[in-house]
Amino acid sequence: MEKKHKLEWGPVASRATGVLVILAGILLAASLCTASPEQDNPIPNIFRTYSTPGDSIVRLSWFVLAICALIFLVVFTLLTYAIAKFRNKAGDAQREPAQVYGSTQIELAWTVIPILIVVVLFLATARVIHAIQDAPKPAAAVEVTAIGHQFWWEFRYPALGVVTANELHIPVSDPAHPTPTFLKLLSADTDHSFWVPQLAGKTDLIPNRVNETWVDPQRTGLFLGQCAQYCGTQHAKMLLRVYVESPEAFQVWIQAQKQTANQDEKELAGRRVFETTACVNCHAVGGTNATGRFGPDLTHMMSRSTIAAGAAENTKGNLRLWIQNPDAIKPGSLMPAMQLSDADLEALVRYLETLQ
Amino acid sequence: MSSDAMALPSVGSAGRPWVETLHEWVTTVDHKRLGILYIVYALIFLVVGGIEATLMRIQLMFPHYSFVSPQVFNRLFTMHGTTMIFFVAMPILFGFANYLVPLMIGTRDMAFPRLNAFSFWLTALGGFLLYFSFVGGSGLYGAGNAPDVGWWAYAPLTSRAFSPGHSSDYWTIAVLVSGFGSIGTAINIIATIFSMRCPGMKLSRMPLLVWLNLVMTCMVLIVITPLSAAQIMLLVDRYLGGHFFDTQAGGSAAIWMHFFWIFGHPEVYILIIPCFAFMSEIIPVFSRKPIFGYPVMVGATVCIGFVSMSVWAHHMFTIGMSSYSNAFFTLTSMVVGVPTGIKIFNWLGTMWGGKLIFKTAMLFCIAFLFQFLISGLTGIMLAVSPFDWQLSGSYFVVAHFHYVIVGGILFAIFGAFYYWYPKITGKMLNESLGKLHFWLFVIGFHLTFDLMHIPGILGMPRRIYTYEPGRGWDTLNFLVTIGAFIQGIATLVFVANLVFSYFRGPKAGNDPWDAWTLEWSVSSPPPDYNFASIPTVASRRPLWDRKHPEDPDSRYE
């Protein structure tokens, strides 16, 4: 057949693959360990969870990863060994090796063993599916309706009479007296997906369909997520913030959100701008005649730390920019540019800043 | 047996006007020419889809980068996905099947040569329609835009409320038309395999490549149908006031998902099974041993064919199905891993005790084995539905299926090019350029797709045109883009090799690899009629029998 080979490519190939895999593993391990648990969690790592469905998923995931790693090691070793051992040596290219057509015993072995592994994996998985999906709702559970919009989140607390947007507040749960949060997931337009990796896996919000998910957070803090199902132009900036608070802080927040909007007499001019332009078609401000529902409820918008579904910090400069030219922050968002005069814009922003 | 080609003029002989050559290619019904047309067509779209991928990777190099607008980015990933699946992977694999199946079963053409040409031109029309959306998407005045609904085109994004203009229609009709082409080719290949085998070639003696293409084409027949049905329903929704997927009028978005994925998941196997076929021909030849466990390989493939039809909803674990549905699809998705694992072990068994020859084709096959192993294992992770609730829709999934499609399918296709190029053109590909191509591609591939798993684990969703800084995704995305560039350079080396070797490569001869299947018994390139006289075979490796009359395979089968 062929002559000789200058370089032994096979072993080099397998070694290079091995090195790459190991490097990737190290990088992965490093990134998994770097997030500090104490401060707010800037990295929404699925392996650093602080809530029940997330935690049970992590335990199952490590089990699956361990089995997969084992399979990988065995097959990788066999393949590498075969490549290194059975390469054609120079000089004896003329003789063909023994022609082996198969072996029933060996083939049976490598059929039965994978089947056993599948049985184990399936049983372990089925348990977790049942535990998460069929969990009963305790009486003390907080109920929230989350509605996906292009490209923001609406959160309604029907039992508490609170409506807010993009920043979800929920109480931390005490294992002795669990107060999990059950979310009913709806969509106003296209498909979306609710995903806060450190609390739970994702569940889609699908129009004309009611989905449900729940979280039972064990630690206070801010947890980041974002829409995980492509929903249109600004899918990327449909961000999500979940504040897990102590029961007391949560009660304080609820009480504050229940109030109607601040009616500061000094900002009447700005309020007039708001109520006489297109703002009211889409936005609601509690206690006024602004009752639009196409955009986020602004009754307590200054209590939120971001605007435009997390795309920008809630500062005066960003507010001005967002009202004047939303495309500068979020091109393709459904908020129109309002084309206000400088005086009107200034008055409007000052009014919005009173909506504590 | 017929090894000696008659002296007939070869294709495209010099001195004729180019119009005549062109006319010959456009009107051809020869399975070899149609095979080449499929392959060349797919290679052109491979470059187009690759450019789209590169533009996306540049945009994702830095957080809050504005290389392209969100609108353009969304069109890019829609076009990239649609192009790569429907207009690169399917046609290139059909091209190889078209070219190789008749040669390997010892016949002179496909069962229906004119249907064959018709199917190719339908597929070609599909690709043209898809890209015509850039011009005609908003009407005929040339202000169009490509579809931006993602390659799954989930409802209700495709409804007229969210997708005005005609860009989605071009997507729908392109997929529909190329689907008809695929069905035509599938029927043709099945008919050819069942009715045109040469004397002595029982089903149990067919080369594995033919067997696997038989399974693949049967799957095409079954699963393209629901996809086509869904496209027609979508058109009814958009133009005739239907409400199949129109959620605002009581339609169901989830029904579209079912229709799409009952096509979409078997599609992955439709693409990978012909690649298993390449493995099953190339690895034995470069191990100098017959395939290990031929009956099991056939059985495992048929088994994959059946089981893969019942796994589709693992793409939908997050849509809120019942716990029983989730458990069922978890089980089926894991079960399909068993026959797939058997295949890897059988290739290992083929190499075991052999004399491995590391030609470029074999290098690609070996890399395939490692990479396919890894993608299979990440597939098991995604089959575990609770794990999938975290990983689904994230960059982990993107990394996983690119590991299958690039690390598996594309590597196998590269291997097939290095193996059969000499047969198709009569010239050897340059081995040094081939090895350069291989190593560059391996490095680029692993840099891109190994690292791409991590942002997914760190919470990065797919299909976002930009991302927030400080979430641990920045460096990884930068490196992923560097890897994409290396793969791009490697692909250029490959294309250069194809062109350079066509003009300057050494002559291949009939049988450069000392192989065993019938296509190597004829000249390179094969004459128009393939075989001067139809061969008769007595075993799975007819050329082995001929080269080793003292120890023929037929004695053991």
Offer a concise description of the structure.
The complex is a heterodimer of chains A (356) and B (557). With 356 residues, chain A is an alpha+beta fold. Chain A has helices spanning 9-34, 52-85, 104-133, 247-258, 268-276, 279-282, 316-324, 342-352; strands at residues 142-149, 152-157, 162-165, 167-171, 181-187, 192-194, 203-205, 211-215, 221-226, 239-245, 306-307, 312-313.
What's the Cα radius of gyration of chain A? 28 Å
Work out the number of β strands of chain B. 0
The total count of helices of chain B amounts to 16
- Shape summary of chain B: globular
Give the biggest beta sheet of chain B: none
The CATH superfamily name of chain B is Cytochrome c oxidase-like, subunit I domain
Global structural class of chain A: alpha+beta
Identify the overall geometry of chain A: elongated
Largest interface, Cβ cutoff 8 Å: A-B, 109 and 109 residues
* CATH top-level class of chain B: Mainly Alpha
Known CATH architecture of chain B: Up-down Bundle
Main sheet summary of chain A? 5 strands, mixed
Considering DSSP H and I runs of 4 or more, what fraction of the residues of chain A is helical? 25-40%
Gyration radius over CA of chain B:
23 Å
> How much helix is in the residues of chain B?
55-70%
CATH domain fold name of chain B: Cytochrome C Oxidase, Chain A
Q: What would the average pLDDT of chain B be, to the nearest integer? A: 94
- Count of helical regions of chain A: 8
Distance between the termini of chain B: 20 Å
